[in-house]
Amino acid sequence: MINQSIDEVDLRILECLLEDAQRSHKEIGQLVHLTGQAVGARVRKLQDAGVIEGYTLRWNPDKIGLTVHAFLIIFMKSNTAHQSFIAFAKSREEVAEVHRVSGEGCYWMRVRLRSGAELNAFLEQLLQHANYRLSLSIETIK
Amino acid sequence: MINQSIDEVDLRILECLLEDAQRSHKEIGQLVHLTGQAVGARVRKLQDAGVIEGYTLRWNPDKIGLTVHAFLIIFMKSNTAHQSFIAFAKSREEVAEVHRVSGEGCYWMRVRLRSGAELNAFLEQLLQHANYRLSLSIETIK
DNA sequence: GGAATTAACTTTCACGGTGAAAGGAAACGG
DNA sequence: CCGTTTCCTTTCACCGTGAAAGTTAATTCC
User: Fold this and answer.
1) What is the three-class DSSP state of B38?
2) Within an 8 Å CB–CB cutoff, is residue B86 touching chain A?
3) Which residues of chain B have a CB within 8 Å of the CB of A6?
4) Do B56 and A56 touch (CB under 8 A)?
């Protein structure tokens, strides 16, 4: 069992860090009634267990000019195209996220771009590997 | 112009922190040829500008039992249902992300759940507000 | 029952990252 | 040529952090 060693205190620490990963262990400790050092030990345990994979930023791509935010459902043109599509997706930094999915299409993908022109150019290249259905994000609700 | 005050050094710092937000300013400074304090000042500037919104974790929901990862395309049943759907989506902690989109459907949404049974229960409640098309993530490619 | 063991916590301590403050260099404008 | 602004470095004091050692409680074994 994977969860055997993860209790509710660990979960509260996790939630706390998800909200703000810069909170000090001491501050978190006050919420869960532990010393900062004990919190530190639990955080290390969560890292070792692979629950916490790393630390990163919540940020706003819009503010550096990445104003286009698109979701793509990908359909393969042939059974042999998977590898080339995956290689393409991994190599392009516009591609923020890719998942193999069941249901609608074969893959689901998120991209961020600077403009409609860039989107157009990107889609043209994507077409060499796969067909797609495009949704543009108009507003982030949550 | 928003970008006027953001230069390539800022972008390198941003990339650096996106990879690992725990890197010290001193360490980043060595990469961009600045002192740790100068890096700190730029990071603060990025925060004030709203580029950096906060600090959070990269983590693995799988490891705490959230094994079901689904994407949903949402279709409204009527023009008046939007508010109730948005309220529903915001209130449910299973819902990790929601966007208003153009193209296929009205909204796009990501949920994480513990099991097929939970997914079933969730979808039943969702149906009170909207129709949907479901894709399950089988594997994270990127 | 009592001794040994283990797990998880607290206390203490030294190191180093951080932000504030002050000083310096380069660019700009009258 | 001088004042101003901007961005940097240096210095310094504070505090968060992890390591180590000590404490407590629960478990196990004879």
Assistant:
1) helix
2) yes
3) 64
4) yes
Selected residue of A15, A22, A42, A55 to mutate for chain B interface (largest B Cβ count, 10 A): A55
Q: Which residues contact A112 (CB under 8 A, 6 or more apart)?
A: A61, A66, A68, A69, A70, A94, A96
Asked if residue A121 and residue A67 are part of one domain, the reply reads yes
Positions of strand D less than 7 angstroms from a protein CB: 7-11, 15-20
- What protein residues sit with their CB closer than 7 Å to strand C? A 5, 9, 29, 33-35, 37-38, 41-42; B 24-26, 36-37, 40, 43-44
Residues A69 and A127 in one domain: yes
Residues A22 and A43 occupy one common structural domain: yes
CA–CA dist B42, B79 (Å, integer):
46
Q: Where are the alpha helices (DSSP H) in chain B?
A: 8-19, 25-32, 36-48, 82-91, 116-126
Report residue A117 as tokens.
């022109």
Q: What value does the mean pLDDT take over residues A96-112?
A: 96
Which tens digit of pLDDT belongs to each residue from B43-72?
999 999 999 999 999 999 999 999 999 999
